[in-house]
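Q: What does the assembly look like in three dimensions?
Context provided by user:
Components: two
Sequences:
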Amino acid sequence: MADLLRVDIVGSDAVKWRGTASSVVAPTVEGEIGLLAGHEPILSLLRAGSVKVTPSSGDAQEFAIAGGFISFDHDVVTVVVDPVTEPA
Amino acid sequence: MGGQQRVYRQRIRSTQSLKKIFRAMELIAASRIGKARLRVASATPYALTITRAISAVATHSIVDHPLTSERTDTNRAAILVVSADRGMAGAYSANVIRESERLRERLIADGKEIVQFASGRRAVAYFKFRHRPLEREWTGGSDSPEHDRAREIARTLLDACLASVEDGGVAELHVVFTFFHSMVNQETRVIRLLPLEIVEGVAEPGTGPEPLYDFEPSAEEVLDDLLPRYIEARIHSVLLQCSASELAARQRAMNTAVTNAEDIVRKYTRLANSARQAEITQEISEIVSGADALETAS
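A: Here is the predicted structure of the complete assembly.
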């Protein structure tokens, strides 16, 4: 799998993470979804849980979320997350 | 020291202390504006992403959502005015209020009934003074709006838009605010937030067949979730724009005030000097003429 995803994880007041990744796993309302390059376009709501990103370089990242949605189109992944109320 | 001189000196002193206050306010506004601009910039990706997602739903599915279709059962229209909490920002609040009054007249001419919402103490005071009913008002924190405030406003407005006619539902929602172009250029704008008319930043239609979008759980439910988010993001960005504009306007107004204060100090210093000179001249002529009189008498 040489193809990479362009990932934006966006919170309401800041971009949480931005970069390229080989895979993204997110908790949608219908169950966990794993996204690799070449996935069909999807727009899905998320439930509380954590979004896991495996970057093209470096360690896997994990983001706790309270909700939000994920969109996937042409290998561009955008995750809009609701901030987890502190303390997470 | 003569009376005239004393009056001038007093004016100079009071203007000088006012000038210090103006200068301090200018500096405060200047120091806050950087942060306000940063907040505008950092809230933009979120709004943009949601807008894109909504346009994706709109282009890839046929969903009839109450928030996207025109309501015909009521002719009530809501106006939200976003102004400042404090003055000392030149014509900032006055401009927004004037624009909203213009919009109101236009809507009334179209046979609409107005439901007024106001944010910021200045706007609230304006409507209160004129005994005009405010459906809901928000005051405080206009120069550093919190996200909770945006959420609260968005909720209230959405509820108004979704409410039935008997409960005072509204068909349209307009927002009057100040768009922050740059430090020297802010523009009063009116946008119609609901029903959604145009979706900005629509992804350019791709070449070839459109990909088939998969919506989970369903296009309707996705839209149900997205639209309130969209409104919230828009309101939030409006509030942030307004805070940046307010601070920029305040900085400019205070800068002008400092310059004016300096002018006044200069003017009064001149007047005080000439009053002093006039007094001296008068004293000399009194002495001279007194001495003359003594000489001729003896």
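Follow-up: The mean pLDDT of chain B is 86.
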